[in-house]
Amino acid sequence: ESFFVGDLEKVFQRHELWRKLLPRVGLFYAVKCCPLMPVVRLLAALGTGFDCASQNEIDSVLSVGVDPSKIIYALPCKPASQLQHARKRKVTLMTFDNEDELHKVKKYYPDARLVVRLRADETGSKFKMGNKFGCSLEQVERLLTRANHLDMNVVGVSFYGGDDSSSSASFIRNLDNCRKTFNIASSIGYNMTLLDIGGGFPGNDASDEILHQMTTEIRKYLDEHFPLACGIDIIAEPGRYFVESAFSLATNIVGKNKTEGSRSKDYTCSYYVNESIYLSFWKIFMQSGEYTPKLLKKYPNQKLDTGVIIYGTTCDGTDIIVPHATLPDMSLEDWIIWDDMGAYTVLCKFGFNGIMTSKAFYYVRKEA
């Protein structure tokens, strides 16, 4: 079977790095990114808060002893049943972005602490939410006025600038809109005390330069426009940032087909591995997933084949993980390793053709 290996020390190191890069910004880990319990337990032990988007995520976080005050229910459109569940579990902080949601919260959880979510500039992000969530800046005054008439407790503002972002400029534009929203809220009578700058921070080692540049610009903006003396708490909801580089996926070659004759002019050898674009490699569907195979064992003096294709294990002919690879001549049951596989890969319990998702194993180096 294929399986994940998680280096929990890397999760810890990312936590410590954040404290250096953005020391004023509290951490609320986005559980949806990698909901595996060893990760949740470690971050809980480090005092991290949690961004939850469902009843199951809330229950998972509470099960490890996290106080409900350390959870933000960051889903602007919530089922009534799950809203009632949040109330039962005393999770008070949650997002909204429309008037209908306000009325729903008023009905089922009138003493909730609300955070208005803005529609974000997602320039520079690989995965975009588009128009699904967030109100425009032009809608804010009407929405907050309605909330005030309903006697709802709006405590802050949030945005989510897309996942795996590389643009400091878009973050600053989103922060500008947050600053304007605070001013609008003040004119209506709200004294908001929370700024949530969302997630989307890059998580692999190759993006460290981008990460440092982004956080430097964010830190400068916050110090100027949300100074420490203003009394506003600032949080973020990173997910990928913590776990992407902490997990690798090991896949086994379960099939091999040397191409002969005119079957294909594009490749000379097909390998089939026990994973799939319907499971851990689903980002290929988004046309943004590029994966580099790494071989577990050495192949000395082997001539490299430039015409290799790596297929997933389902019966779908488009289940292609790597369409063009350069690899040595490998054998059945050899292992291929894929790094940076911790973010949004281990979410499915069942996949296409009823194939189970991969298991996960964890380690912490002795010296850690």
Write the layout of secondary structure elements.
Layout (H helix, E strand, L loop, with lengths): L2 E5 H14 L3 E6 L6 H9 L3 E4 L2 H8 L8 E3 L6 H9 L4 E4 L2 H10 L4 E6 L6 E3 L9 H13 L3 E7 L3 E3 L2 H21 L5 E3 L11 H18 L7 E4 L3 H4 L3 E12 L10 E5 L20 E2 L9 E7 L8 E8 L7 E4 L20 E5 L5
Helix pairs in contact: 1-2, 6-7, 7-8
Family: Belongs to the Orn/Lys/Arg decarboxylase class-II family.
Subunit structure: Homodimer. Only the dimer is catalytically active, as the active sites are constructed of residues from both monomers.
Cofactor: pyridoxal 5'-phosphate
Describe the structure.
The chain is of the alpha/beta class. 29% of the residues lie in helices and 25% in strands. The chain contains nine helices and 18 strands. The strands form three sheets. Strands 1, 12, 13, 14, 15, 16, 17 and 18 form an eight-stranded mixed β-sheet that branches. Helix 1 packs across helix 2. The protein is elongated, with a radius of gyration of 23 Å. The protein starts with a strand and ends in a 5-residue tail after the last strand.
The percentage of residues in β strands lies in 15-25%
Distance between the termini: 29 Å
Gross geometry: elongated
SSE order: EHEHEHEHEHEEHEEHEHEHEEEEEEE
Keywords: Lyase, Polyamine biosynthesis, Pyridoxal phosphate
Active site: 315
GO molecular function: ornithine decarboxylase activity
EC number: 4.1.1.17
